[in-house]
Design brief:
heterotrimer, A alpha/beta, B mainly alpha, C mainly alpha, A: alpha/beta, Rossmann fold, 2 domains, three-stranded antiparallel beta sheet, about 25% helix, B: mainly alpha, flat
Amino acid sequence: MTDAAVIMAATGLACRRGERVLFRGLDLDVRPGQIVWVRGANGRGKTSLLRLLAGLARPEAGRIERDAQRERVYIGHSNALKDDLTVAESLRFLTRLHGFDTSAEALDAALRRFGLHSRRAAPVRTLSQGQRRRVALARLCTAPAAALWLLDEPFDALDTEGVDALNTVLSEHAARGGSTLLTSHVPLTLTSLAPITLQLNEAVAA
Amino acid sequence: MLANIHFFTFASPPRFYALAGKLVPWFWAAAALLAGAGLWIGFFEAPTDATQGDAYRIIFIHVPAAWMSMLLYMVMAFWAAIGWAFNARLASMVARAIAPTGAMFTFAALWSGALWGKPTWGTWWVWDARLTSELILLFLYLGYMALVNAIDDTRRADQAGALLAVIGSVNVPIIYFSVKWWNTLHQGATISASAAPKMVASMLMAMLLMTLACWAYAFAVVFTRTRAVVAERERDAKWLNEGVA
Amino acid sequence: MTAPVFSAVLGRDLRLAARRRVDALLPLAFFAVAVSLFPLGVGPEPNTLRQIAPGVLWVCALLAAMLSVTQLYAGDQVDGSLEQMMLAGGAGTLAALPVAIAKAVSHWLLTGLPLVLIAPLFGVMFDLSGRSIGALCASLVLGTPILSLLGGLGAALTLGVRNGGVLLILLIVPLCIPALIFGSGAVSAVESSASARGHFSLLGALFIATGLLAPIATAAALRIATE
């Protein structure tokens, strides 16, 4: 794999929200094994950028090119969990929805990774915020190996164990050649791989 | 090709604002003259009908209003769709401006239909195919206006409104057909509001003049309202604040 | 890749409904209450009731379907599930198509089909003949999917809008009028010993046309609402 293998490249990206243009002229590219930390003040368009890259919204201007072979995994600010389903059912639904590995072993392994195995039959309603975040993140373990991960505030509400679990998962993902784009208002504590910072404040403001 | 260039030039809000401002007084004048002529002929010159007497003369308001109501819905749907497809702001603004006028014509068609019904058949309202379809059309207009009004984000409102208007325009023929079907099948619905008297030349002339008057009126009002929408949406833009008349 | 999305969403919705059985029964309760109001308002004379029965039953079914459709997408939008479902459908304007179809089917299974099953009971209460009740069920079998499809479209258009429920009814009920006319007309025809074949053909055609077009429009509306 050469340096030139770019997974996703965006040129001249502009994002509008309602009547306001949040940023324009943004260029970025993501290569295998990278972790990109998108930073910026509140309201600067971090979530909007992630949504654009995930394909949930069309950019106001500019282009996004991506390697179509790679899966994108987008985990937004909300957990996409229903109160009435159990942890296992929720994970199974989200995994099946995206066509990821729904085998019993894969789901079990994912739950263990994030320390949820003991609570697999508990309704989501009974979980704390941090536990719900873990359930939402668990499907990262069932996604195809070299996928591009787009994570919006993944560390939100996680306790130290949760943060450790996520850090490990992120590092392993990068080591396998996968890439991640994430936002986090909490400083990253990844020791193995220094993330690349993308400052939205510096992107040409409207 | 040349025509395209001219067309798209006036698709910019500032140019439209200026052009419309100049044209609106002419439209008002035309509307007044045509309406005056049409109503004069319709109310004074056209002969009294043998069966319906003088009461039939309300059709000179009723029929043009009904035509306009249906036509304006299609025009509104057309411009809304253009605005959605080409991301053309002005087209969406025009569509929004048409809606209240279209609803007004629908309402005019309804009460003029009632005024016709009372002396002719003794009831203020009759559930015949055309009046019932007009009533449903009024609901379609109100629905469009309510939807674009309820969504705060103007772009989303324009797009959702365009989709609704297109769906509505596809449904209008289906609704009209089903209402006609409903009307002919149920016993007792022997009254038809479309029983217009035999048309003499002067009557046709009056209808034509009134229809053209309605068109001119519609242009005047829609252009004025569009200018208001443009002014509101572009209120922070320089060109507006520098006093383009 | 659309197959997993459709079956995943449909399966999940049915499972959720099974956990909240009371909620699923509310539209039926509304139907029963609304239908019962008419004899109270109009008088118990059997001939009158028999005559208004097709219309009353159909209108109440329509309203019951519309009332339960307002929440079709709202919950999923709030907790972020809708985003995930649309993402899973691929890129492009039709990404939400499997979701739209799955939601319409789940609404029909949970509201439309039960209405078809309890309608005969109320047909008897209005003294309709056996053949009329059969026609009623047949017309509802064709008509309630139309209502679910159009209702889903309305829910997508009014997603997240304040007063969305009432607005949805104002938008969608006019579009349901042809189905209402053909559906209740079929029952009236059978009740007066006339042929209902024309009604059923038109209703069937409407069903096919709505089935083909409404999901596409709903997918477009979802895209507009979530961008």
